Amino acid sequence: VQLVEAGGGLVQPGGVPRPLCLVFGRIVSINNIGWYRQAPGKQRDLVASYAWGGATNYADSVKGRLTFSRDDAKNTMYLQMNSLKPEDTAVYYCYLDNVLRNYWGQGTQVTVSS
């Protein structure tokens, strides 16, 4: 199983990038999927978490601006970003967990700067 992110980069404040995460391999009994982020010098924090078959939870700092979605036919999850701020600068990681373990992508850098 492998998770591969893409779609980060340098964006201006207010930009609207949409990083994506491709999931390769067959995974059973998924519990949660979503995104975390880690800013320089800080811990890795939850951004959005989708409980399989349930609801999506968002960190308060991103509610109304970042939106999780997925396309099961393409084995892909997305993080639509709107109204970005410099404090959203971080490495964004997708993740997936099931009854056996957690899986992480390698991360994609999103830098918000004018």
Write structural notes for this entry.
- This protein has 114 residues and is mainly beta.
- It is built from no helices and eleven strands.
- The protein has strands spanning 2-6, 9-11, 20-24, 30-38, 44-51, 56-58, 66-71, 76-81, 90-98, 102-104, 108-112.
- Strands 2, 4, 5, 6, 9, 10 and 11 form a seven-stranded mixed sheet that branches.
- The chain is globular and about 45 Å long.
Low-confidence stretches: none
The count of β-strands is 11
How many strands, which pairing sense, and closed or not: the largest β-sheet?
7 strands, mixed
Instruction: State the end-to-end distance.
Output: 37 Å
- Cα-based radius of gyration, to the nearest Å: 13 Å
Helix-strand pattern, N to C?
EEEEEEEEEEE
Number of alpha- plus pi-helical segments:
0
Q: Structural class given helices, strands, pairing?
A: mainly beta
Q: Average the pLDDT over all residues and give the rounded result.
A: 94
